[in-house]
Amino acid sequence: MLLIINGIYRGQTWSNLVLNVKDFSSAIEQVGRFVEFGLTLLSVRVRLKEKMLFLPVEVFDGQPFEKPVESMRRHWEEVLRTTVLPDIN
């Protein structure tokens, strides 16, 4: 998976900074670290094979995503585990 970042750091434009990341969570955490470091994001993209996903730059405020994402994952897993689907027959 490739993470592609465009931004401005101390008046210098960073164009198409490409990082190889292992998964989507790692990509999000890496972007957060750059913002915490002082990078102003212009665009963020994630590429996996032929697919390109543009991420909204406004959600990156330099705060870690790991805990909120893990909490959300536990919640939806619990919902899926405990939800009884209606019989459609």
Topology:
Elements: E1 2-9, E2 12-20, H1 24-37, E3 40-48, E4 51-55, H2 66-82
Antiparallel strand pairs: 1-2, 1-3, 3-4
Overview of this protein structure:
With 89 residues, the chain is an alpha+beta fold. The protein has one domain (2-82). Helices cover 35% and strands 35% of the residues. It contains two helices and four strands. It has helices at 24-37, 66-82, and strands spanning 2-9, 12-20, 40-48, 51-55. The protein has a four-stranded antiparallel β-sheet with strand order 2-1-3-4, with helices on one face. A hairpin with a 2-residue loop joins strand 3 (40-48) and strand 4 (51-55). The longest helix is centred in the C-terminal third of the chain and has 17 residues, at 66-82. The protein is elongated, with a radius of gyration of 17 Å. It starts with a strand and ends in a 7-residue tail after the last helix.
